[in-house]
C-alpha cells in the first residue's frame, strides 16, 4: 500500500492531548467536525495544511502520471496502473484526483483491500469522514483482518466522528490481530491516549478548548 495510513501523516502529534480535547468538547454543544480535524494537525485539507504551516506544497510527478496514463490508454482495465496513478496523486496531496483513480481501481479489482482502504483515506482527507468509514467497511468485508483498515477506521472514528469508544474497539482489534506490526504500535498509542485522557477528564484535568 503506497498511500500509507493516516497515522503516518499525524505521527508527530500527541494522541493524549488531542483525545483529551475531544473528550472536553463532547461535554459542550455539538460543533462541526472541521475544527477537530484542524486541531489534530495533518488531517485537514492539504491546502489548509500548507497555508497554516508554511510548508511547501507537494509536487506532482508529471512524468509518472504521463507514463501511467499511456499504459491505461492502451490497457484501460489495468487495475495496477490505476492504483499507481492514485498513489501518485495521493503523494502530491491531490486527493480529489487520487479518489478518481482509486475508485477506478476498485471498480476494476473489487477484491483489492489495499486500494479500497487508500480510497477511504483519500475520502477522509477531503472531509468525507462518513464516506471513508463506509469504504473501510467494504475493505473489511474483503479482509476482516486488514490491519491498516482497522487502524484508519479508528482514527477516522476518533478525529472525524469523535467516537472514542468505536475508535478504541477498532484499535484493540489491530493489537489483537497484528500485535508486532507498526499498525499495532500506533493503535496502542491511541488506546493509551484515550485511557489517559479519560482519566484526566474524570479527575477534572482534561484540556479545554481555549
Name the features.
single chain, 210 residues, mainly alpha, Serine Threonine Protein Phosphatase 5, Tetratricopeptide repeat, 12 helices, elongated, disordered C terminus
CATH class categorisation:
Mainly Alpha
The number of helical runs is 12
Q: What is the CATH architecture term?
A: Alpha Horseshoe
The CATH topology name reads Serine Threonine Protein Phosphatase 5, Tetratricopeptide repeat
Strand fraction band? under 5%
Count of discrete domains: 1
The CATH superfamily is identified as: Tetratricopeptide repeat domain
Quick synopsis:
The chain is mainly alpha-helical. It is built from 12 helices and no strands. The chain has helices spanning 6-9, 15-26, 34-40, 46-53, 62-74, 79-91, 95-108, 113-125, 129-142, 147-160, 164-177, 182-202.
